[in-house]
Amino acid sequence: MNARIFVGDRRVEGVAADDRGLAYGDGLFETLRAYRGEAPWWDAHWARLERGAQRLRLPLPDQDFVRAQADAALEGVDAGVLKLIVTRGSGGRGYAPAEAAEPAWILSAHPLPSALRDGLALRWCDTRLSIQPALAGIKHCNRLEQVLARAEWNDASASDRDADEGLMLDTEDNVVCATAANVFARIDGRWLTPRMDRCGVAGVCRAWVLSELNADESRLSRPQLESAETVFLCNAVRGILPVARLGERAWAPHPQVSVLRGHLAAAAPMFATHE
After folding, report:
1. Predicted local confidence at residue 173, as pLDDT
2. What gap in Å lies between CA 180 and CA 124, rounded to an integer?
3. In whole angstroms, what is the distance from residue 13 CA to residue 2 CA?
4. What share of the chain is helix, strand, coil (3-state, %, to 5)?
5. CA distances from 29 to 87, 155, 178, 244 (A)
6. Is the distance from CB of 73 to CB of 107 less than 8 angstroms?
7. pLDDT-flagged residues of the chain (< 70)
8. CA-based angle 187:188:191, to the nearest 5?
9. pLDDT at position 60
10. In the beta sheet, which residues pair with residue 90?
11. How far apart are CA 38 and CA 117, in angstroms?
């Protein structure tokens, strides 16, 4: 991993022991697909970062300076992942944030994750997502629910351990997302995706798909999803991922999903060469 750490516009050697992101998860992050030395969806990721910062009242470093550092970190990288973490920086013990904070931030470059099968196998996660509208939609640094959900694979039966991803419900049994992706389903001839107004992350790729498909946001139940005509996942690193199986429910490849993947590859060539 190639990491660069900053406080404001100063590069530093390491994360401070009293960093509030470390102590409380008081921060935000973005995970961007890198392609030919650039992050093509940078603007969309930064816009979501700004929305999250406004919600948390979190100061952000200068975007132009961060972008220049990102370009330097990605120099020579043909395909990979760029992760940006921004925290409120150093602070004393206790939850109350300082009135004036200097953000700390980390840029790290990573290889692309291994390719997944073309037709994912999904499982249901037992861990539920808490309903908290104040944090809904943004990509804050507290991901313990996803950590617990992903750890369920370790204790699962042999068939569930073979799953590629897990779907998560909220505490009122509404479908929200996968552990690291958004979900879309075709139900009664309409494309639907769960609302992100009470929990979950409003993904950058999800926004692209919403616009491309003219899809609707809706509350979805587990039975609705299991009876859908077809299902796919999406995120900003892997793009669009067709789903072949969810427990005992199986789906054949759907032509509209194939067409959609082609449109995404044309709009963002970084998804033409890797899932």
Report:
1. 97
2. 13
3. 13
4. 30, 30, 40
5. 9, 29, 18, 30
6. yes
7. 1, 156-160, 273-275
8. 45
9. 97
10. 19
11. 26
- Quote the pLDDT of residue 273: 63
Q: Which pLDDT value is given to residue 117?
A: 79
Which residue in this structure is represented by tokens 């395909």?
79
Give the amino acid at 6: F
Terminal C-alpha separation, the chain: 21
Structure tokens at 122: 């999904």
Q: Which domains does the chain have, with CATH numbers?
A: 2-110 (3.30.470.10), 120-271 (3.20.10.10)
> Which residue carries 């999800």 as its tokens?
206
Pairwise CA distance, residues 254 & 251, whole Å: 8
Would the pTM count as exceeding 0.85?
yes
Buried b (16+ CB within 10 A) or exposed e, 223-245: ebbbebebbbbbbbbbbbbbbbb
257 close to 240: Cβ distance less than 8 angstroms: yes
